[in-house]
Design a protein that fits this description.
160 residues; mainly alpha; 3 helices; 2 strands
Length: 160
């Protein structure tokens, strides 16, 4: 029995129309270690690595960011040492408690900045991309070489 005449005028073609639209590349999110760098987003959606030059620029940026973290530790320690050396011993106008309170808040805020900075480095590391991990370590090594030799090593909540 020929059923072709029963559906006159309607097509039974269930294929989808041309779906090959130019879709933007999505960020890949890896939960396992990988060396694949294409379509990785580093911390932010706008830091989307699509091309090899972007990949190289990302490696350089991560090295600079990680070295910058070591510099901030150096700078904060130097600033703290300078603040401690000029702290007033006695004051006739009774401003010493206010200065100590300001110094304590300043120290706490710089510590908070340092912890936030280290967490951002941790997020870069947690892309699970081997290249970005190496860049983070290289930056830490270079930063420590240039600024970390003379600073006391202290343990803190910082992830890096």
């Amino acid at each position: 029995m020929d059923h072709s005449s029963h559906y006159a005028g309607s097509s039974m073609d269930h294929s989808m129309p041309d779906m090959d639209h130019d879709m933007p590349a999505m960020c890949s999110m890896n939960m396992l270690f990988t060396w694949d760098w294409k379509n990785t987003c580093v911390v932010y959606r706008w830091w989307h690595v699509k091309t090899f030059p972007q990949f190289l620029a990302t490696l350089v940026a991560i090295v600079i960011i990680a070295a910058g973290y070591e510099y901030t530790k150096y700078w904060f320690n130097k600033r703290e040492a300078n603040t401690a050396s000029v702290a007033p011993v006695s004051s006739a106008n009774n401003s010493a408690p206010l200065i100590r309170k300001y110094a304590k808040w300043s120290k706490s805020l710089t510590y908070g900045f340092q912890v936030g900075y280290s967490f951002m480095l941790m997020l870069i590391f947690m892309t699970y991309n081997g290249w970005y991990m190496i860049a983070t370590v290289v930056g830490a090594v270079l930063g420590h070489h240039f600024w970390g030799q003379d600073t006391p090593q202290t343990r803190s909540m910082a992830c890096h």
